[in-house]
Amino acid sequence: MKYGLFFGDSITYGEYDGVFGGWVDILKRYALQKFNEGSSESELILYNLGIGGETTEGLLKRLPHEMSARNAADGNIVFLGYGANDLAVKDGVQMVNNEHFKNNIVNAVQHAKQYAEEVYLVSILPLSDKVDGATAASGKLRTNTEVLLYNQILKGIADKHSVRYIDFHTLFLPDKEILLSGDGIHPNEKGYGLMAETAISIIEKYL
């Protein structure tokens, strides 16, 4: 039995998807179905550990506790999906600046590696043009320029620390206006479905 642990913010949690519950929940059902059909060699149990609004600061506080509480005998796979809140500016202050973000992700990767056979960094999604540079109802302001910068940081960490990078950003870019929900930040059902479709090929090798 292996565990797949998905840490992240509201996009990991699956907010704004009232149909499928988000990409991680689609993966949970897929892995369970494969096991029940007897078509998977190993049971893979997926945990959706996404918390809406969380930054990498919150991740570092809970990661050691979450990892020690869920440590499968046959190993763990860890997914880290952060940055959309870190890069946001609220009341004129960036929630987690890029240097702190980089350090936090590196620390999280190093800690996860103590428990996990593989670690995946999940890219930040592009913003809809209508919210790029606009202040959202939450009071947070985000820009696609910052999204690109923070994704570059994630890519660099993935290369340097031998972890994998899941590039949902590039996947969404051509059709982002039809894959994002009305708030221009979270995916809609189509968007989450596309993310799950891509991620299924990743979890297949653990089934």
Note the total helix count.
Answer: 8
Number of strand elements: 8
What is the first-to-last residue Cα distance? 10 Å
> Could you describe the largest sheet, including whether it forms a barrel?
5 strands, parallel
Instruction: Characterize the overall form.
Output: globular
Mean pLDDT over the full residue set: 96
N-to-C series of helices and strands: EHHEHEEEHEEHEHHH
> Helix share of residues?
40-55%
Q: What is the CA-atom radius of gyration, in angstroms?
A: 16 Å
Low-pLDDT residue intervals, each spanning 5 or more residues = none
Strand adjacency order, main sheet: 2-1-3-6-8
Strand content: 15-25%
| Class from secondary-structure proportions | alpha/beta
Short description:
This protein is α/β, with parallel strands linked by helices and 207 residues long. It has helices spanning 10-13, 23-37, 56-69, 98-113, 144-160, 168-172, 176-179, 189-203, and strands at 2-8, 44-50, 76-81, 89-90, 93-94, 116-122, 140-141, 164-166. The chain is globular and about 50 Å long.
